[in-house]
Automatic annotation (TrEMBL):
InterPro entries: Chitin_synth (IPR004835), Nucleotide-diphossugar_trans (IPR029044). It comes from the Eukaryota. This is chitin synthase. The chain crosses the membrane at residues 12-37, 49-70, 91-113, 119-141, 162-185, 191-210, 231-252, 277-298, 310-328, 348-368, 909-928, 934-950, 957-974, 980-1000, 1020-1037, 1043-1066, 1165-1187, 1193-1216. One of its GO terms (biological process) is chitin biosynthetic process. It comes from Patella caerulea (Rayed Mediterranean limpet). GO terms for cellular component: cell periphery; membrane. Residues 624-641 have a biased composition (Polar residues). Coiled coil: none annotated. Its EC number is 2.4.1.16.
Length: 1240
């Protein structure tokens, strides 16, 4: 392997060989199947009506696949997504071309191929390349004439072009010559009409399949973007034209058809049951779709020559030898239907062979070129998801566009962001995590330090500890975290930096010079508590303070990319922010426009060193980083809905080199670190002064450098200093991400880098998540969740990648693009003003955040080889409390999606009709799952044990209604008892039904075997549904063990489908979190030690030291440090406190009003749920009792199978595409341009 190229020769060779063998095998199999059918008809073993029926099926099926593909990717909502149609002439051209294509293929398959010798039938379709070859040759000739090269080279080029013209002209007249020869001299009975039609059909197909023509008719006029509505119209026309043409041919040729059309068609249909007929039809169709997928794979890895071109060249000759062997032509006098003395037909066959070879022999012209970028998606590579069975190779090659369809509009980018420019802020919210859970997270951070996976990514960690202060004292959990922090990172206590802040306390540790860890300890009396407000806190901090995102004007800036950095009508206020100690200071001012020169930003330097007050002083030397910022237009949303005018707060900056407020305490190791934490934070947390004057900078001895204001300047070097200037009138260009994790999540550097790389290669992604693995003690509820998580990630999230967008990126481990968060932050931080707001915003903040992103046009994606693990509930009641929030969040966000469906589909290109239907099915299933599950259980009891429905159905329905009422009026204790009883009854009933069903099915199969045949019964669909889940596990190697946990899932899932929806809806009023509401007994702080001044340790029941209660004293506030940057940060937090996160602002409706409205909403929802389940239960019972027992089985199977089928197809597609993508990125990424999807 040559150094520097990055090619893996062995990998390329292996893939090339496998692609070549697979493609030629598929193409030859398709050709042999067609010849099989042709011989059956020619030897009068197929009725003419059966033949035309077969031809119709073979020709229409590919277009039906294309129709399904379009419907899969198109949301059919009136005026939802307004895509520009091609202009009227282009649209008319496409409609006419579709009609002509359908008629031409039908005529060729129904009439012409029947009278063609087999060699000609195999080679003649290559004439479809003629028009595209002529266009390519003329283009090369025109390009050659413009070149200014030596005469000798010009002569050689001219000769090559002349040869190309000769070959193209040969392919123009050769089909006509073949038709004339066969018609006049050959023993094959070709009619005059067939002789005339043959060259016309080939030229029509060559014209309509020309890539240039296809692009004109498929893509919009302005942006060259594919229009699926136009493609849908063309496909429907072809589907209608082909059968109509075949019916016309039958009426023209067959007298019996004209006299009695119905009987003739019935005769043809009855003859299609022979396996010799339907088997080659199935093989032909399967080979066609596999050939299309292999062509796509070859194009994605840029191996079109071994994967497509060579197989297309060799297919006729390989088919020749295969048919000789299969049909024993060697032992007969005729080979391929040709007699050795039939020189006329052999001559026509020789012309056809030349037609086959010419497209591969024209110098300087490739019938299929290598793509310009690796991994370009199918929609960008191919015009249609279809093919032609009679012209298989030709339709595949001419359907491909090596430059990409609509690439100019989608913003093809083939370079990933340069090393070192990506930034990831790891933000974690904590509340009452145990010591083991905190340790898992800190150990994950420690692994990041020692890994080389993130060498090109700047990483910071921010831990937001919620409600962790009481009377200016750090509580047990804060002390526990600090103790673990010191132990895990093996840092000296003197290196910790602490400040008093408006929200409580900020502690900074530097385990690595490039990896700071911030601990933000929140005081519940100053800042709002709960997870959503902690998320709002770190989003504002990262986006508005640490990065250059002006959230309020972000959308305006996106739509006006050409806006000048400095307003021409105003003097831009530019400020200099000091980042660390000064070794040479720079100051910035602006000068107004003058008639003689454009407006300039003036950057001035000083050779003397100044302190923070503007007077002369000294400072340590070092590398300083600065940010030059315009006064931002950002503002905060107040509780009254108005915008604050303190727009100078959010002056954004790059990564700061923090000035250290170092506490000089000798470092020790071991258990003494716990005691010394108190010494490190030995100060009272007093209130921060409200008034804080801004630092006014002056400049002297200036050296002036003029920067044009209209330039988008990111970095510059100034003489005698190493400085970085960032103009932040528009968001930063370098990618910034926020990795949101839970406090008990364990992850690796590889998982982080995988998510970042995924987002870098698809700029339309607003968030991405990985495969979360639940862990816990070996208990039934943990086993249940292990399989449930696996099944949902295998099927639901993987399929959502293909059919639309992942609807929820779990908060335990998800990567968010900062630009996407900036789009939705103002909405996300709004308070709850209604009962529905409380459901959407406070029950599932992660799902609501994802819904907001989708509404703003961002796609969310899942990647299965990015692994992380988190603790899951271990008891049923803890699980029930968690799932109560999840179910309500899912339902409320579904309502929000359907309420804004038109807007969502208009703004988000990821939404498809199949995706919308799957969401609707999931939503309805949650609502009707109690009645459906109950009916299934008791129908099974009736079929297996003979339990009369007249007793079981009324009793089960009464139990259902009683449980609903009990959950509404009962106390938590009564609900707990009733729910436990329901769980036990459901599990016992499910185990009984499962054992009985297995025995019942085994006995039925045994009886059928005794009778000599196995009759299909409706309940056989149940093993098929289970088989789908088993298949999902099998294509996920390494996760097969989860199938064992599936047994526990099978026993518990009826209880979950019956209990969970009822319990969740009936407890809408409950606004508790459901988990970690109360600390464990061993974790409660010892209240009597809260005010002591000496070191005190809590001792658990085992006598082991746990945590130390600390009462900080004499810590400096950020404003008292003298650092300009810390002063600005303090102002930022004060502003955030006064507008968004303070306990007295941005409140929304009061708690009592929300509780009252939630109570009303609960009653309505429970009534609606009972009414809906009663109605559905009555319908299913009526069908089962009065109509047919089998019908109910098919209805229920259809409910489950629709979503399962969509998920299996989507999951398989995702797994194949993801495997190919991983290998290509690993082997070829460094050597060739790679497709990067831009956001529309």
């Amino acid at each position: 392997m040559a150094s520097g190229t990055g090619h893996n020769i062995r990998w390329l060779s292996a893939v090339s060989v496998w692609l070549f063998l697979a493609m030629i095998g598929v193409l030859v199999s398709a050709k042999v199947s067609l010849l099989w059918l042709l011989r059956l008809f020619k030897y009068e073993q197929i009725h003419p009506a059966t033949w035309y029926l077969i031809v119709c099926i073979i020709l229409v099926l590919p277009h039906l696949c294309n129709l399904f593909y379009i419907m899969w990717n198109t949301p059919f909502i009136s005026s939802a997504r307004k895509e520009e149609l091609p202009r009227a002439p282009r649209l008319f051209m496409g409609l006419i071309g579709s009609i002509m294509e359908g008629m031409s293929i039908a005529i060729f398959a129904g009439e012409i191929c029947l009278v063609l010798p087999e060699p000609i039938f195999l080679c003649l379709p290559a004439a479809a390349y003629t028009i595209p070859l002529i266009i390519s040759t003329c283009k090369n000739l025109r390009a050659t004439s413009k070149l200014k090269v030596k005469p000798a080279k010009t002569s050689c080029a001219t000769i090559k072009q002349c040869l190309g013209i000769f070959f193209c002209s040969f392919n123009m007249w050769a089909p006509s010559a073949i038709a004339v020869i066969i018609y006049i001299w050959s023993p094959f009975n070709m009619s005059l009409q067939q002789c005339i039609s043959l060259p016309i059909v080939l030229m029509v197909l060559s014209t309509v399949w020309t890539p240039k023509i296809q692009k004109l008719t498929v893509c919009s006029s302005r942006h060259s973007k594919r229009n699926l509505v136009a493609s849908l119209s063309y496909t429907v026309i072809k589907i209608c034209t082909i059968p109509a043409t075949l019916v016309g041919l039958m009426a023209w040729r067959i007298k019996d058809f004209r006299e009695n059309m119905g009987d003739y068609l019935i005769t043809g249909l009855s003859g299609s049951g022979d396996y010799r007929i339907w088997l080659p039809v199935v093989i032909t169709f399967m080979c066609g779709i596999v050939a299309l997928l292999l062509t796509d794979a070859a194009c994605k890895v840029s191996l079109t020559t071994p994967g497509v071109r060579l197989p297309a060249l060799l297919t006729p000759i390989v088919t020749f030898f295969v048919t000789i062997i299969l049909w024993g032509d060697v032992s007969t006098e005729a080979i391929w239907e040709l007699s050795g003395r039939d020189f006329v037909t052999w001559s026509a066959s020789a012309l056809a062979i030349c037609i086959w070879l010419v497209p591969f022999a024209i110098p300087g012209v490739d019938i299929i070129k290598a793509p310009t970028a690796l991994l370009r998606p199918f929609a960008e590579n191919f015009y249609h998801f279809s093919w032609s069975q009679m012209f298989l190779e030709q339709s595949l090659i001419l359907n491909f566009n090596h430059k990409g369809i609509g690439s100019s509009s989608s913003g093809l980018d083939t370079e990933i962001q340069k090393s070192g420019s990506k930034k990831v802020f790891i933000c974690t919210t904590m509340f009452r995590e145990s010591k083991a859970e905190m340790s898992r997270y800190l150990l994950s951070l420690q692994k990041l330090l020692s890994s080389d996976k993130l060498i090109d990514i700047k990483v910071e960690s921010h831990i937001f500890l919620d409600n962790a202060m009481d009377n200016d004292s750090l509580n047990t959990y804060a002390c526990q975290l600090l103790t673990l922090l010191v132990d895990t990172f093996n840092v000296t206590l003197s290196s910790l930096v602490a400040y008093r802040t408006p929200y409580g306390c900020q502690i900074l540790s530097h385990p690595n010079k490039n990896f700071p860890v911030y601990v933000h300890v929140k005081d519940g009396s100053k800042f709002k508590v709960k997870k959503r407000w902690s998320q709002v806190m770190y989003m504002n901090y990262i986006l508005k303070y640490r990065c250059s995102f002006d959230v309020d004007t972000f959308e305006q800036q996106k739509n006006d990319e050409d806006k000048h950095l400095v307003d021409s009508n105003k003097n831009a206020a530019v400020r200099l922010i000091k980042k660390t100690s000064l070794s040479g200071q720079f100051f910035v001012q602006t000068e107004p426009n003058s008639p003689s020169k454009p407006e300039q930003i003036v950057v001035t330097t000083t050779e003397d060193t100044f302190d923070d007050t503007g007077s002369e002083g000294s400072s340590a030397s070092g590398s300083d980083a600065y940010t030059v910022s315009r006064e931002s237009n950002a503002s905060c949303h107040t509780s009254e809905g108005t915008d604050s005018d303190d727009s100078d707060l959010f002056l954004f900056r790059t990564y700061p080199g923090r000035g250290k407020n170092t506490l000089s305490v000798p470092g020790t190791r071991g258990a003494k670190k716990q005691a010394l934490v108190k010494n490190v934070l030995g100060a009272d947390l007093n209130n921060i002064h409200d008034g804080m004057e801004k630092h006014n900078l002056v400049w002297t001895n200036r050296k002036t450098l003029y920067l044009p204001a209209s330039d988008e300047i990111e970095q510059m070097n100034v003489e005698n200093a190493d400085t970085v200037f960032t103009l932040t009138s528009k968001p930063m260009d370098e990618p910034v991400y926020i990795l949101a994790t839970d406090a008990d999540t364990e992850f690796s550097a590889k998982s982080v880098s995988t998510l970042v790389e995924l987002c870098e290669r698809d700029h339309s992604l607003g968030a991405a998540c990985g495969r979360t693995i639940p862990i816990g003690r070996q208990r039934p509820m943990v086993w249940y969740q292990k399989f449930e998580y696996a099944k949902d990630f295998w099927l639901v999230k993987a399929s959502q990648n293909i059919i639309g967008s992942v609807t929820c990126c779990p908060g335990c481990f998800s990567l968010y693009r900062a630009r996407a968060l900036a789009d939705v932050l103002n909405t996300f931080q709004e308070p709850s003003n209604s009962a529905f707001d409380a459901l959407v915003k406070d029950h599932g903040e992660d799902r609501w955040l994802c819904t907001l992103m989708m509404l703003r046009g961002w796609k969310l994606e899942y990647i299965d080889h990015c692994r992380n693990s988190t603790h899951c509930p271990e008891t049923f009641m803890e699980f029930l409390g968690q799932r109560r929030r999840w179910v309500l969040s899912e339902l409320s966000n579904m309502v929000l999606i359907f309420k804004n469906l038109r807007k969502l589909v208009r703004s988000n290109t990821a939404f498809s009709s199949v995706f919308i239907l799957s969401l609707l099915q999931m939503f309805l299933w949650v609502l009707i799952s109690p009645s459906t599950t109950l009916l299934v259980m008791f129908v099974a009891c009736d079929a297996i044990f003979g339990l009369p429905l007249v007793w079981s159905i009324p009793i089960s329905f009464i139990v259902f209604v009683a449980y609903c009422v009990l959950c509404c009026i009962g106390s938590p204790r009564i609900q707990k008892i009733a729910t436990g009883a329901m769980l036990c009854l459901s599990v016992i009933l499910m185990i009984t039904v499962s054992v009985g069903f297995v025995y019942f099915m085994a006995m039925s199969i045994k009886e059928d075997v005794r009778d000599g045949y196995i009759e299909f019964r409706p309940y056989f669909l149940i093993p098929l549904l289970i088989g789908g889940v088993v298949y999902a596990a099998l294509i996920h190697p390494g996760e097969w063990l989860n199938l064992i946990y599936g047994l526990m899932y099978a026993f518990l899932f009826p209880a979950m489908f019956i209990i969970l929806p009822i319990y969740a809806v009936a407890n809408i009023v409950d606004q508790s979190w459901g988990t970690r509401e109360l600390p464990k007994k061993s974790e409660k702080p010892n209240k009597k030690n809260n005010n002591i001044n000496s070191i005190e340790e809590l001792v658990d029941d085992n006598g082991e030291s746990d945590v130390t209660i600390i009462r900080p004293k004499n810590l400096q506030t950020m404003a008292e440090t003298g650092s300009t940057e810390l002063k600005e940060e303090s102002i930022f937090w004060e502003k955030l406190q006064s507008t968004v996160l303070g306990t007295g602002v941005n409140q929304g409706k009061d708690k009592e009003t929300l509780q009252r409205r939630l109570f009303v909403l609960r009653n309505r929802c429970v009534f609606a749920m009972v009414l809906l389940n009663t109605f559905w239960f009555s319908i299913l019972t009526t069908i089962y009792v009065l109509i047919d027992t089998d019908v109910i089985c098919y209805i229920l199977a259809g409910i489950f199978s629709f979503s399962l089928l969509v998920q299996l197809v989507g999951m398989t597609s995702y797994r194949l595409d993801n495997a190919l993508r991983r290998y290509v990125l690993r082997k070829l990424c460094s050597s060739q341009p790679t497709w990067i999807k831009a956001r529309h």
